[in-house]
Structures are given as C-alpha cells and as structure tokens.
Write a structure and sequence with these properties.
By secondary structure, the protein is α+β, with helices and mostly antiparallel strands. It has 2 domains: 173 residues, no CATH class; 112 residues, no CATH class. The protein has 9 helices and 12 strands. The strands form 4 sheets. Strands 1-5-10-11-12 form a 5-stranded mixed β-sheet.
Amino acid sequence: MCSVPKKLYKYRPLKATTIAELESNVVYYANPKNFNDPLDCSPVINVDIDTQSLEKLCFAMLSKTQKGSGDSKAISKRIDKIRYYSNEPNWDGTPSDSKSKLKIDFAREIQNCLEKLMRRKGVLSLAQRWNCPLMWSHYADQHNGICIEYDTSQLEFAKPFAVDYSGVRDIKASDLYGWIIDELITSRERVHDSYFYRKASQWRYEKEWRHVRDGSGVDASPYLISAIYFGLRCSHSVAATLAKLFRGTDNEPKFYGICEDSTTFRLKRYRWNIDELVWDSPSISQYWREKEAQGDFSVCDGE
C-alpha cells in the first residue's frame, strides 16, 4: 500500500464558492453519482456464487435499501417478479436460458441496491502534485484558478487512499455476500475499495487520492491549508485579495506563483511575500512583468 504524501492538492476555479471554502476552511465531499466520469464509482457485479446464494444476497440488499425495509412480503414479491421475467422467451420468440438470465437479473438488482447504499457516501478528491498542466487546464479554469495545498500529516481521522488505475471495474458477488450476509470486515473493505478507489487507466495522470466518508456536501476540512498556488493566468490582484484572508492567522499558508520553464513544458513556482501582496501588489505585478520581459526565471524552482 502506498504511503500517504505529506502534501496533497486541490485544483479549483476562482468562484465565490472557492473563496467561501478558503475563508471557512471547508471542503466539498461529492456524491459519487455526480462525477464527471460516469464509469467512476459504477462497478459491475462479477457473479462468482451460485443462484441460491445470489438470491439470498439480493433479498438482503433489497431489505437494506427499500423504503419500509422491514416489509419482507414486498421484497419476496420483487424476487418472485425477477424469477417470472427470467422465464420469458427471447426477443425473437426462442426459449431463453432462464438460469443464466436469472443470474443476470439478480446481479442487476444487486448492483442497483449497491449504488443506493454507496450514494450515501461523500468523496473528497485530491491530487498528488501541484505542477500538472492538464489538471490546471481541466480543474483550475485553464490556469486562471488556484491550487490549494493541504497538509495531510495529521491522518488519525481522515486518511486518504490512492486511486487504482489498473482498469479493473468489477466487484465480486462473493465479496458482497461476505459483507452483507456474513458481516465480514475484510469483505466490506474489498467492496468499498473496489467501488471508490478504481478508475480507468486513462485518468492515471491525475495521481488522485481520496478521502471517503458518510454523507456528501460541505464540511470542515480534515486538513490544514499549507500553501496556495496561483495559475499562469491568475492576476496578482486576485492573489492579493486571497492573501488578506490569511494574513496574520495562526496557520498562515505560503503563497506561490506559477511560471513557465524557458525550454520545456514543465511548470515551476516562485514564492510570494504575503505582506508585499497585501500592501504593494501593483508594484509586485510590475516587478514580475519586468522579470518576464527579461526572461529571468532564476527565482523559480521545480519542486
């Protein structure tokens, strides 16, 4: 298992909600069903148990997710309906393989129930690095936004985990059975990890880490803000405005501007003095314009 980096990052556009989040040190735990990738947190069921066990699992999961879950009679009717439709002929009138169809229909019902259970969770997504050009473009308003650095060294109550980009999308029915029927902690953890921490290999560039908790929405950040990075197109006046939010606070973060490398596509950073940003931002802007005109990026580093 990967060790958690001491710093993780959140790319954000500059909106009113972003300013409010910074001012109150809150974060947004997203409902997994609202992710921009519809395949994310949308696994398929790998049926590796017999039909009888699958039916028992289906009954138990319907009991957990249906309104009035104590009504076993209504759930039994639902199971009977699944059995009935599994015997229907194929679209061309030929007899169907009812046993195979029954497994497929049970698996589909179990998958729907699993989505209802997991929809109650919230996901905080963070990145492993601040200098990814694609992340700046996709999540920070084409470099007009910011990147927030969080100190994740205090992990007792909110340990994030790395996303697996192997491309494996299934959840074993046997693991679901072990969790729901046998109440095995190891099975529950495998289901949870498969559901929340797997993505397609094409997303590998994000190097994403996630903290998953009960309930979505805005809540206090589990991590302290240790630095704020301002995109290539982010104005100095914006940086000065944000600096005023933090100047003199107990946990005053560092401020960095992003600059280009003169010979490669790498992004670098330079440190901003928070007092100069607050009191003398016009002259600071002029200073960096002159630096840019001179091609002098010697103050940048590539950390």
